[in-house]
Each structure stands twice: as C-alpha cells, then as structure tokens.
UniProtKB/TrEMBL annotation:
A motif ('KMSKS' region) lies at residues 250-254. The gene is gltX. The keyword Nucleotidyltransferase does not apply. This is Glutamate--tRNA ligase. Catalyzes the attachment of glutamate to tRNA(Glu) in a two-step reaction: glutamate is first activated by ATP to form Glu-AMP and then transferred to the acceptor end of tRNA(Glu). Zn(2+) binds at C106, C108, C133, H135.
Amino acid sequence: MTVKTRFAPSPTGYMHLGNARTALFNALFAWQEQGVFLLRIEDTDQERSTTEFAQQLMQDLQWLGLSWQEGPNVNEISPPYYQAQRGEIYARYYQQLMDNDQAYPCFCSAAELSLSRKLQRAAGQAPRYAGTCAHLSPSEIEAKLAQGVQPTLRFRVPKNEKIIFTDMVRGEQQFMSDDIGDFIIRRADGTPAFFFCNAIDDALMQVTKALRGEDHLTNTPRQLMILSALNLPAPQYGHFSLILGHDGAPLSKRNGSMSIKELREKGWLSLAVVNYLARLGHSYTEDTLLSLEELARQINDQRLGHAPSRFDPQHLKHWQQLALSQLDDEQWWQWLTHNITLEIPSDLCHLFIHAVRPNVLFPEDAQQWAEMILTENLVWNEEAHLVIKETDSAFFNHALIALHNSQGDYAKLVDELKQTSGLKGKKLFMPLRAALTGVTHGPEMAYLLPLIGIHRAEQRLSSAADQDSL
Ligand SMILES: Nc1ncnc2c1ncn2[C@@H]1O[C@H](COP(=O)(O)OP(=O)(O)OP(=O)(O)O)[C@@H](O)[C@H]1O
Ligand SMILES: [Zn+2]
C-alpha cells in the first residue's frame, strides 16, 4: 500500500514552527517512499476558524516547499478537504453508531456535569462521565427531546478493554478503556468533536501514517475505539514532544508564538527553517544543509526521538547562514530586494554585494549597512566614539591627505597612512574604520570605501579630526 501521511491543521491562527515541524515530518515520510502527503483543513471550530487563516496556512506550506499531493485544489479524490463541509459524511457515521447502540444522546447540562466531576474528585476518583444518560429508554429520550433540550452525542466506551498501539515515536502504548468515560463525539450545536472527525477522515482518506504533537496522545485510544466500532482502518500514529518557546510553554497559535509568515517577512530562508526543524526530534547523520529531497531520502523512523525540544534562535541562525551561503549573487540580491528597498545606485550593486554579503543574515542588516554607506550624517556608536577620542587628530589629518592622494583606493591609502602616521595594525585600522563607518567592525574597508565615496569619506575624516581637537 502506498504511504499516505497528512497534515491536518486548524485554521485558527498563523502557523508556527511547531505546526510546521508536524507538516514537515509528514511530508518527508511520505516522499521518502514516493507516497502522498495529504492536507486537510480542520475548520470545525466555527468561531475561531477563518478562510484567511486557511489561505495563509497553504501559502506558508508552499513557501516551506511542503506542497501536498492530495487536498484542497490538488488531486481531490476524497473531497471535500474542509471538515466544515463534511457534515453529511459524519452524520452517516453518527447514525451507524446509534443504530448499533455504540453512541447515545446525553442531556446533562454543563452545571450537572461540573457537579458530578466535583463529587468524583472529592471521593478521590479521576473525573469522567458518570454514565447518567447511558441507559435512557426510548420514551425518556423522546420526552427530553420534546422539552427542546439539545443533546450531545456520546460514544459508549467498551468495558474492560485494553487499547494497545505502537507509536512511531514512543513505542508501545497501553490504555485501559475503563479509565476513559463515555466521551462526546457530537456537540449540542451539532458540530463534530475533534477525535471523531479526525479519525473518520483519516480512515476515509486512507491515511496510513499520522505524525502529530503529543497533545494528541491521549486522544489516540479514543480514536482507535471509534474506528474499531465502525470497522474502519486506523493509521499508524506517532506523537512528537511539543516544541517549547523561550518561556518554557509549548509554541501555540494562542500565545503569539512567532509565525511562519513572520519568519518569511523577516527574511528567513525556508531551506534554513526546514533544515532546523528536521533536526528537532530527529537526528541526521549529516549536519550539512540538505535539500528537501535529501531530507526525505535520509529520514528514518529509527532516528526519531521524543526528548522535549526548545526553540533556539541561535541554531536557526546557523542554518540561515548556511542557506544564504548557497545562493549565488543574483539569488542573494533577489532575496534581499524582495524584502526591502535599497537606495544603493545600480552601478554600485555589485560592489555592495561583495562588501556586505558576509555580514548579512537578514535583509535589515543590509539595510543598516546601506544607510551607513549613504548617510550624510554619520553617527558614531559608543565604541567608535571612544576609539576616535583616543586617537590623535593628526592621524585623521594624515588620513585626509592619503585619501586625496590615493583617490579612494583603500590599499594605497593605508600604505601612505602607515608612513605618515607611523601607526600600523589595530592602531591604524580601528580609528580609520571608526571614523569612516561609525562602528568598529563590519565589511572589508577596501569594498566599503568606494561605496562611501571620496566626498563622504572626506567629511567623515574631517569630523573625526574635529572631534579629537574638542
Ligand atoms: N508547540 C508545538 N510543537 C510541536 N507540534 C505542535 C505544537 N503545537 C501544535 N503542534 C502540532 O501541530 C499540528 C497542528 O495543530 P493545530 O492546527 O491544532 O495547531 P495548534 O498550534 O495546536 O493550535 P492551538 O494553538 O490553537 O492549540 C498538530 O499535529 C499539533 O500537535
Ligand atoms: Zn448525560
């Protein structure tokens, strides 16, 4: 059977790195075996789901390179792929469960349920549905319906069953059915509960593997019981530990974790993002930057881990650096100017690229260098200020003369300045850089100077000379 994996997000916010890793691993495990990566939009939470989030989600997946081989607008063999449109399908399975007495209407009010839970806790028991409506007679049900009470539908959990499954990430898992109370599969407003439609859809769409976050681990026995009651096949499940933010809480749409959209807008490269994510909860033998094809080829379920992982921006930056270094100059310029507008004159672009590329991780870095190059009002940072103050004004006057004589050729300028100032090494390069760029580190001066131009360089050296004499 062909491997079919799926990503089944809810369009209730912007996709974050935790969601993206789930999507990535599902895609990689499918592609490794030339299988199908399916996308299904789980928009049953009508209040929080929006079409805008769904659109953004798909755009984010495309940007990450995680295109789906089945799902919205692609190879629609089990449509629709939006759960909000699958009500009729779910209705058939609710009916089947009711016909077989595997589900029953529950008329308990929220207050009654809460009271029951309190009593159970007070008696030292784990709270679960007490079964109040489990054995109502048809006439009792009729009477309640006649009063206009909208019931929920509960799944009748089989007694004394052991539910065992092998988790792709965590190995064998066991649950006892008696620990699980009869649970709601259809809410009073008619909408399906997550475990229900998620399980039914995986079966109908013939999903063979479902990797997801460990927030779903306790849903799994419920889903397996539903599928078994309906005689439907279950996928192989795998549950990853959640990715935690710097505050130690799981990344979540609700707590404003950095979204994929935001990462893209800041100029992160998608190849950096997927290389980073592929190594959270999975180890590769190679620590070089890999293409998606290579990541898929080398993914291995024996190398999955469930140690908790924390989002580390430093690691992501490492991958950003590697991904950037793979771009040729034209791609690099495109990446840059896609994100920002630069005032660099077009005949100097090439020089600019050579000058700043090694110092740029994000477009905004390049923007800062461009501003430094072009400004008529250079501001020194604290360190530069200090260096300039500690340097004799004669040095900058010598530098001014050397600038003229060299016509802006940095190597010539330095040669002459060595002679005239008698300084060399750090003592020479630091004040020169500080005066010309306002900072004490940065791109190679030999590239920067022609960009700054003789006129601005002259002004900058003069103000350094002036400052010193103050
Ligand atoms: N912090 C996380 N780390 C890893 N995976 C996660 C994380 N949060 C969610 N997931 C996984 O992402 C997939 C899609 O989940 P879903 O669309 O429900 O998003 P969510 O972030 O859990 O939403 P919400 O913040 O509303 O709970 C699921 O497999 C879920 O387990
Ligand atoms: Zn009830």
